[in-house]
Specification:
Bound molecules: iron/sulfur cluster
Strand content: 5-15%
Number of strands: 8
CATH class of the largest domain: Mainly Alpha
Radius of gyration: 22 Å
Structural class: alpha/beta
Distance between the termini: 48 Å
Largest sheet: 4 strands, parallel
Strand order of the largest sheet: 2-1-3-4
Length: 442
């Protein structure tokens, strides 16, 4: 499959899509807010990214939304087209010329509403387009910047907005039958493992994905059990429990900062040397790569994904594992860990120590395709039909390995695959690598 070259004409073929709106801004105010917000983030890097595109269309061939549909509107760089046009008109090197001759029209509110589907429903922020681009343009970073502009204009998808708002106010992204703290304690009782809580001093601070608390409690118990096995001074903190950051998904920079600060402050309060991010890819990106900028200075502790932490313990001889006896397995590399974080060897070290026979997916490590649910897409209900289309080739890749066990190290990926299992009547379940480690402690 080969993508056509991309240009403004292709961009003009974007279809009208229903959009969610927040607030009661006028159309003009919405457009101004979006453009001001995008412009606020302009720097040399944004300008370079927007100016360097040679319209080759290669990023389309990297994106599973385009591959699954062959619809030009899903070409990654076109997802930021209104912002690119605004940049050229207002700040680019030929801005004066464009304005003088009226060559670039102002972006309309209707266009921005149509773009909500392209920036949120049909982008996992997976970064595969960024590593393919021959000009080195970080397309996913531009999309992230455009999401912030949409949020500031009151144009975020309702589900992401609601969860981000709830989380920045309460610490958890939605109400639950019981507060997460109580659910965590109940998991300890159910799985007979101590849940270390609110210690005033600990070497390691732990947090949990709400996906695990709600759907995969065994994974939460696995984290506590492995840490107990290692004999590490560690603690959860009741004021900073949740790993996810819905502010990051929704594009709400201020909310993202507040949510990150909650965890940072708790890590400081217990003098942690390491903040271990559980099996949650986007929490890793938000804390490992984005939190220091929002905090305003370097974090005085390390941020490690649990597989990185465990691989270090394995190398140091502190983590002892039995052979798991699962035989042939295959593994999905979560985008935020492998492609954005470079966490590729750590899970493989653990699988090797477990004696697993790893059959790699056709596209693995940095080139792995997203599960389809990343970037908050799993939460956006109207995005489901398109998401399922993108997932078909991924499920085929898993089947083609012939492996009997399918593993990953991100609970949102796991939830996305389990949702697909129900939708397609797929015969595979998705397992947690962390749980497998906890089940085979030496
Ligand atoms: S691959 Fe890079 S240069 Fe080519 S169209 Fe996409 S963003 Fe532009
Ligand atoms: S970040 Fe991923 S999903 Fe989004 S446009 Fe790029 S390749 Fe497609």
């Amino acid at each position: 499959m080969s993508a056509q070259s991309v240009n403004a004409t292709t961009a003009g073929k974007v279809r009208a899509m229903p959009a969610d709106l927040q607030g009661d801004l006028s159309n003009q105010a919405r457009v101004e807010r979006a453009m001001q917000s995008f412009a606020m983030d302009y720097g040399a890097m944004t300008a370079l990214r927007l100016e360097s595109c040679i319209h080759c269309g290669m990023c389309a061939d990297a994106c599973h939304f385009y591959i699954a549909t062959e619809d030009p509107q899903y070409t990654p760089i076109l997802k930021v087209e209104p912002f690119k046009q605004a940049y050229k008109r207002e700040s680019g090197p030929f801005a004066l010329f464009f304005k003088l001759f009226g060559l670039k029209q102002r972006v309309s509110a209707a266009e921005l509403e149509n773009w909500q589907h392209l920036l949120f429903d049909s982008c996992n922020m997976c970064g595969r387009c960024s590593i393919i681009c021959p000009m080195g343009i970080d397309v996913a970073a531009l999309i992230e910047q455009a999401r912030r502009a949409m949020f500031d204009a009151g144009l975020a998808p309702a589900e992401l907005y609601a969860k981000a708002r709830h989380q920045q106010q309460t610490g958890q992204p939605e109400s639950s039958s019981e507060p997460y703290l109580e659910m965590l304690k109940a998991i300890g009782r159910e799985f007979h493992v101590e849940i270390p809580m609110d210690k005033s001093k600990a070497d390691v601070m732990l947090c949990v994905p709400r996906t695990d608390i709600e759907h995969y409690p065994k994974a939460v118990a696995a984290l506590a059990r492995v840490m107990q096995h290692l004999g590490v001074e560690c603690t959860f903190r009741s004021e900073g429990l949740v790993a996810e950051n819905y502010g990051y998904y929704a594009g709400g920079r201020d909310w993202q900062r507040r949510i990150s600060l909650r965890l940072i402050e708790q890590a400081l309060a217990c003098h942690a040397k390491v903040l271990v991010v559980p099996e949650c890819g986007h929490a890793y990106t938000a804390l490992r790569w984005e939190a220091a900028e929002l905090y305003g200075k370097p974090l005085p502790f390390r941020v490690l994904h649990v597989t990185e932490y465990l691989a270090e313990q394995l190398e140091a001889g502190r983590l002892k594992l039995h052979k798991a006896g699962n035989g042939e397995v295959t593994f999905h590399d979560p985008c935020q860990l492998a492609r954005k974080g470079g966490v590729m060897n750590a899970p493989r070290q653990l699988m090797q120590a477990l004696g697993l026979d790893l059959h790699e997916l056709e596209n693995s490590k940095a080139f792995s395709f997203c599960c389809g649910g990343g970037g908050g897409v799993l939460d956006i209900k109207r995005a489901a039909p398109l998401r399922y289309r993108t997932m078909e080739s991924k499920l085929r890749e898993v089947d083609d390995t012939g492996a009997g066990t399918f593993l990953t190290s991100c609970s949102d990926c796991r939830a996305t695959f389990d949702d697909a299992k129900a939708h397609f009547n797929w015969d595979k379940s998705t397992h947690s690598l962390l749980e497998m480690v906890a089940d085979n402690l030496g």
